[in-house]
Amino acid sequence: MALHVDQASVVFPSADRRPPTEALRAIDLTIENDDFVVALGASGCGKSTLLNLIAGFLQPTTGQILLDGHPVQGPGADRSVVFQKHALMPWLNVVDNVAFGLKLQGIPEAARYKVADRFIDLLGLKDFRTAPVYQLSGGMQQRVGIARALTCDPKVLLMDEPLGALDALTRERAQELILTIWNTTHKAVFFITHSVEEALFMGTKLIVMSPRPGRITHRFDLPFSRRFLAGESARHVKASAEFIGLREQVLEIIFADEEAAA
């Protein structure tokens, strides 16, 4: 599997006489199986616009998005999205929320519950299978949202700041859980965050985007998630000299970009 963003640009027309807004310019990016690509940059750099292109919610003004060589022309089950707000159905319990996408596809109840239960177990939600989602904590609700995204067996999992609303401790545990699931399912992941530390810890590849118009200005191959998955503690990884040094380098890039755009 390969997803390729091929020189994609996005220009939003203005509703009045102001000039159009150039949101993205000539983005070139390839995401393959087992890639965990994290996008980082200041607010307004086009990270979410890029995710929406990959999801098929938007079409590029120029360029194209290709999945396995075929143009992406709209949303599809081969790409699932997890948003910062979980967007669960509050009137449904956990298993029915997780199985909701399969129900829309017409999958029989027994078959969709079998698939849903696999991811409920994987996300540590087995004891809450029939619980109403409004009774769950924010972190658990987000786990339900991730389980729901995985049930359709997408080729690419798109995550738009999925941990941004969580408290610090829950967020760190969720980072570890997502990495463990990614290592188990071997999905291609495109993940957006504002946290430099989160980006460095979770990604296998990092792209840093400039202020509008969003461009990829820097790319990094990252070893830290693999170190965690190989058995090194998350705290030890994040306290290492290599991690701290790269964190400061990336922060300098982002601050320099913000000053240049000011």
Low-confidence stretches: none
Reported for the largest beta sheet, the result is: 6 strands, mixed
% residues in beta strands: 15-25%
In spatial order, strands of the major sheet run 6-7-8-3-9-10
- Helices and strands: which structural class? alpha/beta
Order of helices and strands: EEEHEEEHHHHEHEHEEHHH
CATH fold group of the largest domain: Rossmann fold
CATH architecture of the largest domain: 3-Layer(aba) Sandwich
Instruction: Kindly state the percentage of residues in helix.
Output: 40-55%
Q: Based on DSSP secondary structure assignment, what is the total number of beta strands?
A: 10
What is the CATH class of the largest domain? Alpha Beta
- CATH superfamily membership of the largest domain: P-loop containing nucleotide triphosphate hydrolases
